Amino acid sequence: MSESEEVKSPNWNSSVKMLVALTGIVLLGVLLARFHSFIPSIVLAGIVAFLVVPIVRTLHVRFKLPWGLAANACFLILVLLLITASTVTGFAVVQQLQALFLTLQNFLLDLPDIFESISQQTYVLGPWELDFSQFDLAPLAEQLLATVQPVFGQLSTLLASLATGAVEWVVRLIFVLAVSYFLTVDYNRIRAAVINISIPGFTEDFRRLRVALLAIWNAFLRGQLLIVLSTGFLTWIVFTVLGVRFSIGLGFLGGLAKFVPIVGPTTAGAIGALVALFQPGNWFGLTPLGHALLVVASIILLDQSIDYLLVPRIMGTSLNLHPVIILIGLLIGASLAGILGLLLAAPFMATLLLLGRYTYRKIVDLDPWDPPIDDLGKKPKRESRIVKYLQRFRDRLEKT
After folding, report:
1. In Å, what is the CA distance from 252 to each residue of 30, 264, 348?
2. How far is CA 56 from the centre of its chain?
3. Which of 310, 330, 385, 392 has the fewest CB atoms within 10 Å around its CB?
4. C-alpha–C-alpha distance, residues 6 and 3, integer Å
5. pLDDT by residue (tens digit) across 176-217?
6. Backbone angles phi, psi at 129, to 5 degrees
7. Exposed e or buried b per residue across 336-364, where buried means at least 16 C-beta atoms within 10 angstroms of its C-beta
8. Please, how many CA atoms are within 13 Å of residue 247, restricted to the half-sphere of its CB?
9. How far apart are CA 180 and CA 78, in angstroms?
10. Whole-angstrom Cα distance, residue 104 to residue 99?
């Protein structure tokens, strides 16, 4: 063989491939176990970059700015917004949340006495008479107190650290912004590397999986952001109109709760009802119980209106998961990644279902694209003006 002839690299046999794959999996597991504390910050940085990239793309395409200059401008504005929000409204939100959780903690401490007082009374509702003296409610109160109080203690500690400007949180924020900045600057290179991944015979499958996964995460990260902002603002308006204390904190809590399907809105509504039940008075002249029931009815109406009017039109059907699947995902996410796992449980479950359906159909020799994945996320034809505006805003962010 002459020196000018090209020498072809020999292929690995099955044993070598298996050994290399297992070694890579073990090394990845060791790295994840060693640096697991950084994973939430890296995931959060990826989410920030994912949200900022459409804005950078708009500046790059419409205003002909270089990609790096557009990224620098966006992150400069983002930092200024974070500083402004933390100084203007951030402290007010943190103070109201602290006062809110302190009120709830005091309520939990008084819960055994409240249950004891209920157990000693008889209530008459029309033809029915409810005698609670036959029930021992003390164990129930103690169990509820032991379950819920540690959660409020952790939240109060978290809010205290935020209010005092703990160095650890500042460092984490700087780390998240730095990683998201570099991901945004190198977005085109990263995107090209992902698109160029080619598995012989599965190029089309990989493309369609990528399209479906982008539909899921676009719907959650960008669509859910609009839902959360809308819910927080509307919840603040409702609590303010109803004369409930801590309306700013409850609105902030209600918006964040929308990230956690089913459980989040229910918990936020229950907290608002408890505040209304035990606050000194209200400007409607209602009894505390009547005021609390009015709050519950208003929050249920608001949540159902958002779920049926805004969510399907903004987020499409990419995250149309059964409630049982959502609850299972919440339990798994909370046990694996805490608060971040709760927030990302829905898109992760949708991703697992998508990959599971593809794997199952390939195993049993069925068409993996029946029904076609490209149809995911189709929007209804009839939309109100507000929904159209929100939809155009989201589409503008996602436009490539």
Report:
1. 38, 12, 24
2. 23
3. 385
4. 8
5. 999 999 999 999 999 888 888 777 778 888 888 888 888 888
6. -125, 120
7. ebebbbbbbbbbbbbbeebeebbeeeeee
8. 13
9. 12
10. 9
CA–CA gap between residue 100 and residue 111 (Å, rounded)? 16
For residues 344 and 18, what is the distance between their CA atoms, to the nearest angstrom? 32
Helix or strand holding residue 125 (H, E)? strand 122-125
N-to-C CA span, the chain: 51
C-alpha 286/C-alpha 389 separation (Å) is 38
- Two tokens at 216? 């899921």
Nearest to 275 by CA among 241, 240, 239, 245: 245
Rg (C-alpha) for the chain, rounded Å, is 26
Both tokens of residue 220? 């959650």
Identity of the residue numbered 180: S
Residue that the structure tokens 């912004």 belong to: 177
Q: Which of 157, 231, 256 is nearest to 390 (CA)?
A: 231
pLDDT in tens, 76-126: 999 988 887 766 665 666 667 767 777 776 776 666 676 666 666 665 555
Contact 220, 347 (CB under 8 A): yes
Which helix (H) or strand (E) segment holds residue 130: the answer is strand 128-131
Contact 103, 253 (CB under 8 A): no
Tokens at 156, concatenated: 């109060």
User: Residue 163 is which amino acid?
Assistant: A
- Token pair, residue 287, equals 């009894």
**C-alpha to C-alpha distance for 20 and 38, rounded to whole angstroms:** 26
CB 123 within 8 A of CB 130: yes
